[in-house]
Amino acid sequence: MNIIEVKDVVKDYSGHRALDHVSLNVEEGTIYGLLGPNGAGKTSLIRILNQITRPDEGEVLLNGKPLAPSDVMHMGYLPEERGLYKKMKVLSHIVYLGRLKGMSKNDAHRAAMEWLERMDLAEWANKKVEALSKGMAQKVQFIATVVHNPKLLIFDEPFSGFDPVNTEQLKKEILRLNDNGSTILFSTHNMASVEEVCKEFTLINKSRAVLQGNVYDIRRRFKKNLFRVHVAEPVLAPDNALYSIVSLSPRLQSGCEATVKLNQGVSTRDAISNLNGNYTLLGFEELLPSMNEIFIETVTDSNEQR
Ligand SMILES: Nc1ncnc2c1ncn2[C@@H]1O[C@H](COP(=O)(O)OP(=O)(O)OP(=O)(O)O)[C@@H](O)[C@H]1O
């Protein structure tokens, strides 16, 4: 069942069409990525989902029904522009925002403390927000978004401003929230995170949805027939009837490792059996394109077509 259905949505801002007949479905229980270059329209869509603005055309359904004001109580929204009250203490701030989402004081306090501990911020609970570093403040805002344990979480650029260690921590928490039953939709420029955590995605370019579907299926659809081959022998024969060598791994301790492109019509089975006949084959692995490569290829193609 779809928790969100975006149907043919159009959003205009004084002469600029930010969303041009965009449709997408987010299945309940999934992690969904919203991708696109700067200015593509991601935040415009997220703001419609959060009822900060309305579509000019089309509609958005939540659990099969048109969005209603009370729905925001069951959502958690991390906006792109972060904002906390600097003079408030960290714990009081999270409790205050949890209470606004209908939590009792005790529940909000307990959940806030659990989260602060999990995010390594417990010792900051009674410090003022203004004393936090930028990354710590971002973590606090993340906690404030999830503290009421909403069924639907919408994050706009959740990884922006985080160092690699905190990015990993955040990814882990997003996966844990999803395991515990929350559906998650987030916009990001971090393509590695899309490969690691998203099941499905929509790529928006210049206000239109230009690519959408399952991450793994789309990576397979864009595959270029590239394989990594590792043999024990010091050299691999250059281009032949089976493959052409795309690149060789430099300074390998033992053997030879190369990225090869199989020739048209050559099956994986043929390639493996031929390599096995001529070499001590240590490794043979298909290389799927990264989401980064797919993003660049799709955006470039779509810009050329318009
Ligand atoms: N309130 C507004 N008034 C006028 N134009 C707007 C408004 N909000 C967004 N836009 C315009 O709509 C377009 C889409 O903006 P949006 O913020 O949705 O993009 P985005 O995909 O989230 O970009 P980024 O990755 O840079 O955050 C941009 O050209 C932006 O300038």
Cα gyration radius (Å): 24 Å
CATH class category name of the largest domain? Alpha Beta
Which architecture of the largest domain does the CATH hierarchy give at level 2? 3-Layer(aba) Sandwich
What name is given to the CATH topology of the largest domain?
Answer: Rossmann fold
Q: How helix-rich are the residues, as a percent range?
A: 25-40%
The CATH superfamily title of the largest domain: P-loop containing nucleotide triphosphate hydrolases
| Uncertain stretches | none
Pairing-aware structural class of the strands and helices? alpha/beta
Strand order of the largest sheet: 6-7-8-3-9-10
Number of domains: 2
Q: Count of DSSP helices?
A: 9
Strands, total number: 14
Cofactors, ions, other ligands: adenosine-5'-triphosphate
Average pLDDT confidence is: 93
Instruction: Please state roughly what percent of the residues sit in beta strands, choosing from under 5%, 5-15%, 15-25%, 25-35%, 35-45% or over 45%.
Output: 25-35%
Q: Give the ordered list of helices and strands.
A: EEEHEEEHHHEHEHEEHEEEHEH
- Which of globular, elongated, flat, extended, rod-shaped describes the shape? globular
Keywords: ATP-binding, Nodulation, Nucleotide-binding, Transport
Domain ABC transporter: 4-231
GO molecular function: ATP binding
Family: Belongs to the ABC transporter superfamily.
